[in-house]
Amino acid sequence: MKSAAWDPAAAVFKVEFNQTLPSDVATNDLIMSPAYLPRARISHCTFRGMRARAMLFSTYDVQVEHCRIEAPTHVGIMLLGGRRHNFQGPAPHGVVIRDCDFIGCGGAAIYAYGSVTNPGWDVLRDITIADNRIHEDLHLLALRFKKDHPNWAHWSSAICLKNVDGAVIRGNAIDGYATALFLDGDRNVIVADNVCTNAATVVFDADRTSGVSLTGNRGLAPATTARQFDSDLQYINDLR
Q1: What are the strands, taking DSSP E only, across 45-172?
Q2: Is residue 20 part of a domain?
Q3: Number of domains within the chain
């Protein structure tokens, strides 16, 4: 970047670069510098009864280990980025969520969403979800509206991933969910050695998700769907 200055008359920043921008850069793209992104390290913490999400990340290099997330009113851990969601920050790259307990989450225990439309591959990258315990609390479930809407994926599934390139979901124990994993607009996803105590499904549309590998799982079966899943719009419509 050569210069940046505020133009009060136009109410915009004018940014000048010292080289030609790539050909795929378009109007309304979000530009950020990874040099100033913080990494996150959270371990051995308890999050109980949080309003909405227990944790929300929009940065690179995230590690969450040995934590307990109990009864948030929405998602346990949200990985979020993109222009359509408050310009909050870049979509996370390089995330590890390991050896955590998720109990009675109001929405998905883990929800990754890149705020882009069809199909949105390669927005979030390199997500590892391993050796966690995700348990539905039947008492809390009876009090929540998600029980009446099993197809609202980012509420009712244990893990919901959208717009991810390169995910490993391995060795997790999932209890009380009919949909253990919902995939949309993803590619290169390894689902291995997970155990569901009740019969559960991995739901994805093969036309919108590619490179899904299922090996060594117990109580977990694939199911396909033609549902189009745009979380921003779905979230708004859900609550109307």
Answers
A1: 46-48, 55-57, 62-65, 68-70, 77-80, 93-98, 101-103, 110-113, 124-130, 133-135, 159-162, 164-170
A2: no
A3: 1
